[in-house]
Design brief:
Number of helices: 11
Number of strands: 24
Enzyme class: oxidoreductase
Protein name: Flavin-containing monooxygenase
Keywords: Auxin biosynthesis, FAD, Flavoprotein, Membrane, Monooxygenase, NADP, Oxidoreductase, Transmembrane, Transmembrane helix
Strand content: 15-25%
Radius of gyration: 24 Å
Structural class: alpha/beta
EC number: 1.-.-.-
Pathway: Plant hormone metabolism; auxin biosynthesis
Distance between the termini: 20 Å
Length: 415
């Protein structure tokens, strides 16, 4: 990497002799490690001041991996042997930090990508960033790897009267612990894994959670007869068709939970694996919330009609007095806000091509971590991307570097 800097320009122009990776979460680290192994240089741009900012700054304290560690490790470096089967938040962050040290990955922190666009005239990508100190840089590269992930921005729905509510309103990304909610009535909006776990955590701290369930949801036990449900599903799919594996999982869930419809949790028409494959909707892996729902400690309520100062009116006409609201309403991709292209990514910020083909676009554009298949999917993407870029011979890269010097000078002259 080398740069041109002229005092009368506020923006530096930097040529990267390899790909630019946007995002220093697990996906960005994974592809960085794979590139490092084959000797390909790269630059990782990260808007936060740390790696894996979602895990470090926007997760609740009790969070653990939902899947066994062997399905969540990144390429080239497994979890430490002394880690439990389901590592907690601190252990996972420690693993990621040691991963970055092991592969000598040093992201450019506090650099937020404002735009990235392919310049057909120069046959290059131009990536513009702004740092926290206000300085601007344009990175120029042959390859651009989008690693900002599926959960870059929180989803905060607009609900009638929400601004009139006088209690605390936070997103699940800002929730840390139920300790401060002891004795309070808390409305948890959302019934995915986050909604279930936040509700359970509130119970454990003697709060009174009401969980809003608007749509049908699959709830599976995290383990069946001491074996990971996810691992069991993978094993069964080696021998049985998907629809039959779905039936087996649902029968097991029925034996363990009973009919969840009796608790206000309707099941979708599609099976859990089919729904995951077709719509990317992950089933809830229960770690204790269902038992609290059965006992009435977590109360399941239908959709919200409107809020008022201290109350919420539900679609069934019931009115609840509440003290606080936690929006467990999920996240979304932010790719459409900064990536100026419409061939690879759709309007929702996910690749248009279905798994397993969504990792590669045109003109040196790649995506890692958008498979809706967790860390295992991100790892597979990272390996594919590094292998694809690695096919370019070093001589070709050297020739491109020699050609790019006059191009950079022309580029600077247009600022």
């Amino acid at each position: 990497m080398f740069s041109f800097n002229m005092d009368f320009f506020s923006k530096r122009c930097v040529w990267v002799n390899g790909p630019v990776i946007v995002g220093a979460g697990p996906s960005g680290l994974a592809v960085g490690a794979c590139l490092k192994e084959q000797g390909t240089p790269f630059v990782i741009l990260e808007r936060s001041d740390c790696i894996a900012s979602l895990w470090q700054k926007r997760t609740y304290d009790r969070l653990k991996l939902h899947l066994p560690k062997q399905f969540c490790q990144l390429p080239k470096l497994p979890f430490p042997e002394n880690y439990p089967e389901y590592p907690n938040k601190k252990q996972f962050v420690d693993y990621l930090e040691s991963y970055a040290r092991h592969f000598d990955i040093n992201p450019q922190f506090n650099e937020s990508v404002q735009s990235a666009q392919y310049d057909e005239a120069f046959d290059l990508w131009r990536v513009n960033t702004v740092s926290t100190d206000g300085s601007e840089v344009e990175y120029i590269c042959q390859w651009l790897i989008v690693a900002t992930g599926e959960n870059a921005e929180k989803v905060f729905p607009e609900i009638d009267g929400l601004r009139d509510f006088q209690g605390e309103i936070i997103h699940a990304s800002d929730y840390k612990s139920g300790k401060k909610y002891e004795g309070k009535k808390v409305l948890v909006v959302g019934c995915g894994n986050s909604g279930m776990e936040v509700s359970l955590d509130l119970c454990n701290h003697n709060a009174k959670p009401h969980m809003v369930v608007r749509s049908a949801v699959h709830v599976l036990p995290r383990e069946i007869m001491g074996k990971s449900t996810f691992e069991l599903a993978i094993l069964l799919m080696k021998w049985l068709p998907l629809f039959l594996v779905d039936k087996i999982l649902l029968i097991c869930a029925w034996f363990i939970f009973g009919n969840t419809k009796n608790y206000g949790l309707r099941k979708p028409v599609e099976g859990p694996l089919e729904l995951k494959n077709t719509k990317g909707k992950t089933p809830v892996l229960d770690i204790g919330a269902i038992e609290r729902i059965r006992s009435g400690e977590i109360k399941v309520v239908p959709g919200i009609k409107k809020f008022s100062k201290n109350n919420v009116e539900l679609v069934n006409g019931e009115s609840l007095e509440i003290d606080a609201v936690v929006m467990a309403t999920g996240y979304r991709s932010n790719v459409p806000y900064w990536l100026k292209e419409n061939q690879m990514f759709s309007e929702n910020g996910f690749p248009k091509s279905p798994f397993p083909h969504g990792w590669k676009g045109q003109a040196g554009l790649y995506a890692v971590g958008f498979t809706r298949r967790g860390l295992a999917g991100a790892s597979a993407d990272a390996i594919n991307i590094a292998h694809d870029i690695g096919k370019v011979h070093k001589e070709d890269v050297g020739k491109k570097r020699q050609q790019i010097v006059p191009t950079l000078r022309r580029c600077i002259s247009t600022f």
